[in-house]
Amino acid sequence: MVEPSLTYRKYVLGFAALIIVVVYVLRLFSLQLLSDDYRARADSNALMRRIQFPARGAITDRNGKLLVYNQPAYDIMVVMQEQDGVDTLALCKSLGITPEWYVKRMKEIKNTKGYSPYTQQVFMNQLSMEEFSSFQEKLFHFRGFYIQKRSIRQYSFPYAAHVLGDVGEVNPTDIEEDAYYRPGDYIGKQGIERSYERQLRGIKGSEILIRDVHGRIKGRYQDGHFDQKPIPGKNLTLSIDLELQKLGERLMHGKLGSIVAIEPSTGEILCMVTSPTYDPRTMVGRQRGKKHRELSLDPMKPLLNRAIMGTYPPGSTFKTSQALTFLEEGIITPQTAYSCSHGFHYKGLRVGCHGHGSPLPLIPAIGTSCNGYFCWGLYHMFSNREKYHNVQEAMTCWKDYMVSMGFGYKLGVDLPGEKRGFIPNADYYDKAYKGSWNGLTVISISIGQGEVTLTPLQIANLGATIANRGWFITPHVVKEVQDESLDTLYTKRRFTKVSPTHYETVVAGMRRAVESGTCHAANNPWFETCGKTGTAQNRGHDHSVFMGFAPRDNPKIAVAVYVENGGWGATYGVPFGALIMEQYINGHLSPASEAKAETLANRTISYGTSAR
């Protein structure tokens, strides 16, 4: 008879043996089927997968001029598992780098998220054809190092840097947010390159190569049966007119500010000038980082796209929106006349104005840019207790009109970084004045001062909306994407709260301003121009502002000019706007206009340490 203790021991040993077998089976299963580690090591001995990068989409202007294209470039790749024993001093000498840089780069590669010693990692990027040719002759000396062909962005002209943007190496956040990217890849950093990255980048391909025991490439695996060809990125046609952009940048040289022109019927941006600017051709290759740092430290802030990021008081250009609101709300009619004795005077409050005839009805009030007229209009609206229960209700009504015209929120332009500007509401003033305020308290908003701020893009869009008599299409800089429809945001009309009839009245006032008012310098013999000046008050010199469109009927272009510290609207705003419209509509400048453009382009404004 077997003792119970022996029986128990037998079962214990059997169970232990079973556990050991199960553990080994699970480990083998994990290594062979679940883990990529050994598979990668085995595959790397015989096969090498090489990424094939797609050609990034080209970019042209509205007339087909090539703005951005690709040029061949080469990356040096390294497989860490294979490069042991390489003569690093000889490698550094061949590439023109220091041993310290080599050590630092190797550490960076190993610390990269997703790093594997069995796959290719980017060691050095964007070699030129000359650098590539020189190194290729010596490549066989450096086991574990390979050359990978790709392309680098090139910009044809020194214009439109803020619209086009640039391309740079991905950062950890880019990789984490999109599985498409791997360390060493490139992504659009700014401008169109950023906002249309998915369309421009294309789809990566790959090829599988066979290697011998010495790591030498022997050919394509199964004659390329498992290779995948890259799909090129989509080409973009911009709405930008290169010649118009060129003129705008020439005029703004030595000044701070922006010029934005829009085709009213489509919302297409014809030029977007911001000054100061920079040459996009300097933001390519391995020098991009250094150049970007230089620009970011410049006190004039050349990286700032003032057209969509600069928020300014719109000055008297804003009076057109007030006239439209007062007309629609029945506060005034075109015949309503207000007195102006060098300004608005009431209950001890004074808002100054230049000398002109008085009293004036609406159309000549727009033509002469009368401050008193629009102050009286806002005061009567905010004081009207038959129509509004209190000032807060009147303020909310006013704000709703402003929002419908594209103010107070981002318009939605297809460029990154757009700011919304600011349109105050009743809650804002209730908090600021503890509920005790009225139309006189906020009277300056009626003339585009006080708390109101807009971007130059919003001012240009105001011009386009008036040109269309009450609607606009969200401004955009991409006219066409290859084999793809534009987002409906850039094709659908957006209507304001004001009827077309009232817009005709404001158009007449803007035409009066050009014929015999503050925009007289914009008059020309070729087409009817409508305009509105602005002189926005500032702590230093006033800003020079202009907003207008042409021709009066069937308008082709709306433009806004904003020159910081430029003084009167007629000093820079009006002549700049007139030249931009002439260039676009006529296709060229007359000799007299060209001479004027040259004179204005050579003028500079001293900003000193006050530059923002």
Structure summarized in a few sentences:
This protein has 612 residues and is of the alpha+beta class. The chain is 36% helix and 19% strand. A hairpin with a 6-residue loop joins β18 (530-536) and β19 (543-550).
Keywords, separated by commas or semicolons:
single chain; 612 residues; alpha+beta; Penicillin-binding protein 2a (Domain 2); Beta-lactamase; 2 domains; six-stranded mixed β-sheet; five-stranded antiparallel β-sheet; 20 strands; 19% strand
Measured distance between first and last alpha carbons: 101 Å
How many DSSP-defined strands?
20
Helix content: 25-40%
> How much of the sequence is in beta strands?
15-25%
CATH fold title of the largest domain: Beta-lactamase
Low-confidence stretches: none
Tally the helices: what do you get? Answer: 21
What's the average pLDDT?
88
What would CATH call the homologous superfamily of the largest domain? DD-peptidase/beta-lactamase superfamily
CATH class of the largest domain: Alpha Beta
